[in-house]
């Protein structure tokens, strides 16, 4: 007797028409025609069943604040930074909590059950830290929320940057952040990387730095981050986010840099939506894409995962909390449209992102947590193409969200009465 059985599901690894049995909040069986009963059964009807989506790079303290105190008219990074500077003194804990919880509602509906959020520590009030620590506790039953102490105005550049970051860590924020390219000088940026890695090593914490989010090919703080990672023995516990300067670097230098990053076991987190939107703004034509070298980094064995970064905030007026939208953009901007490419792209918002976040019990194997998402698509490639409805979202073996399938009624003589976008248009090579 199982608590839940999802029957006739297709899995991301290519297995078709399998049954997944859940008991005690964990996956207890994955078999063809599972001979058992359950308290609840769901017929997947040949659709994709996946572990939940994970977002390893987000800013929950700013999300859903679009329009406060005004709109970003230019849509640029610099105006976004200025806007956040205007909004930050007006922030209240209550408003921050309310917006963050609303975003978490949206995330659950999209099958997004793990989020790493950077928390701005540049305001010495630390109202952002207080609010998101409260949100972390509130959403713990359904979202794994990790928090990064992020000195958004610069660890050295902000007047109280050093003290505020340390206070945020003392409050319980569990990851050390940084933004070396936003310090006043290259030397200060380099120094901040060393100091922040030392803090992480002393406290036994991971590191996740905004690093080289610029078109400047001479912004090379990722090299310093990799070196300090090895120096302090932080291999596998450090993430470099954005890394957009790599799109402009000399190929010979990159041929040295990538092996150094691999030696340090750096987790790489590009943010396709925001990177393609904000980078290359000083170019006329040809215009740079603004994405780091995803294909090359993956080929070198680095763990690459994608972040959403922003949803309806001063920097990015778009977004829907859908990691498939992130991956969809990644396919286009990286030109990774091959069959195996798409599997790697899907991994970047699931298993790779879970590895970046150090999630335990994640996956779709017997013994893993029964955290699952059933989609209105036949397989991984179709999920990436369609960004389909999440038919049901399961947490610890219990359904926590449902969405009706997208079925369009047609009123055309001689044509079908309805179409199912998820099954009626699959290519011949996809699952039946």
From TrEMBL:
Domain Amidohydrolase: 40-400
Record-linked CDD domains: Bact_CD
Keyword Oxidoreductase: no
Pfam families, sorted: Amidohydro_3
Record NCBIfam families: PRK07572.1
Species whose genome carries this gene: Ensifer adhaerens
Keyword set, alphabetical order: Plasmid
Keyword flag Repressor: no
Protein name: Amidohydrolase family protein
